[in-house]
Amino acid sequence: MDLSVRTQSKRQVIDLTDQIQSLIPARTTGLATLTVLHSAAAVTTANLDPGTDRDLLDALDLIIPIRPWRHPHDPEHASDHLLASLIGPSVSLPIQAGKLLTGTWQRLVLIELDGPKTRKLRLTITDS
């Protein structure tokens, strides 16, 4: 299943948990894999208590130093591509009885690193 998400700012964390959950057929047991089809965005799980989205983005900014990058088409967003590679383009979560299995505070998130943009994602459900 293909999805499209419009981001609103340069760096942003978007909770996709409920949207993805709504796409999982009832009684499915297996694995849901969500992949973002871009090189300056990523998907993962995160705690989204108030303010933790900003904490996550602030921590990511600290990981990559400010320096002259050799990125050929736009050195200004080389760090966006590097962070996307570190976080990763996909995440897989188990499904049991039609429900994503997540921890109490775990949410499925898209991390925008070079927005605002429209991001394409693919959800693959493997029924076991």
Describe the structure.
This protein is an alpha+beta fold and 128 residues long. It has a single domain, classed as YjbQ-like (Jelly Rolls, Sandwich). The chain contains three helices and eight strands, in the order ββαββααββββ. The chain has a five-stranded antiparallel beta sheet, with no helix packed on it. The chain has a three-stranded antiparallel beta sheet with strand order 2-7-4. The longest helix is centred in the middle third of the chain and has 12 residues, at 52-63. The radius of gyration is 15 Å and the shape is elongated. It starts with a strand and ends with a strand.
Please summarize what this structure is.
The chain is of the alpha+beta class and 128 residues long. It has three helices and eight strands; from the N terminus they run ββαββααββββ.
Helix content: 10-25%
If you compute it from the alpha carbons, what radius of gyration comes out, rounded to the nearest whole angstrom?
15 Å
CATH architecture: Sandwich
Q: Give start-end ranges of low-pLDDT stretches.
A: none
Structural category: alpha+beta
Largest sheet strand order: 1-8-3-5-6
Largest sheet: 5 strands, antiparallel
Strand content: 35-45%
H and E string? EEHEEHHEEEE
Our count of helices gives 3
Q: N- to C-terminal separation?
A: 18 Å
What's the structural domain tally? Answer: 1
What is the CATH topology assignment? Answer: Jelly Rolls
Task: Break the fold down into its secondary structure elements and pairings.
Layout: E1 2-6, E2 12-15, H1 17-21, E3 30-36, E4 41-47, H2 52-63, H3 78-87, E5 90-96, E6 99-100, E7 106-112, E8 118-127
Antiparallel strand pairs: 1-8, 2-7, 3-5, 3-8, 4-7, 5-6
